[in-house]
Amino acid sequence: MANFVQNNQAPAREFFIQGVTSTGKPFRPSDWAERLCGVMACFRPEGSGGPNAHLQYSPYVRPTMLAGIKSVVVNEELRSIEPLAYHFVLDFAKDNDLQIVDACALQDEDEKRA
User: Fold this and answer.
1) How far is CA 64 from CA 7, 24, 74, 111, in A?
2) 58: domain CATH number?
């Protein structure tokens, strides 16, 4: 039986930048999320780099698909690590008229059963 370690930290505050403009049109180029996350790859927690860090996205800015829409997940902890990088990501979304959606915490299966 595996030991369960409970994390007492507050849930991560994150938001999504969706690859859809306010008028509903898909944002181009189609690899915009990977490009943005590639630019932000150097922003990571201290000591988490390793020998292949240049090949990994930052845990604070990572590409994903959200309901079939290419998106980027941004962890607000980026603001405390590098405020200029955080504002760069927000300004990118605003300048390109992209939709920003707050992430919501999902309930664990164990919590649902209780």
Assistant:
1) 24, 18, 10, 26
2) 3.30.70.2340
- In one-letter notation, the amino acid at residue 98 is L
Q: Which residues pair with 40 in a beta bridge?
A: none
Report how far residue 88's alpha carbon sits from residue 107's, in angstroms, rounded to the nearest whole number. 31
Dihedral sign (CA 60, 81, 85, 8): positive
Read off the pLDDT of residues 11-29 as tens digits, 9 standing for 90 and up.
569 999 999 999 999 999 9
Range of the domain at 101: 14-44+54-105
Whole-structure pTM value:
0.76
DSSP per residue, 16-34? EEEEEETTSPBPSSTTHHH
Tell me how crowded residue 78 is: count the other CB atoms within 10 A of its CB. Answer: 22
pLDDT tens string 51-70: 666 678 999 999 999 999 99
Domain count along the chain:
1
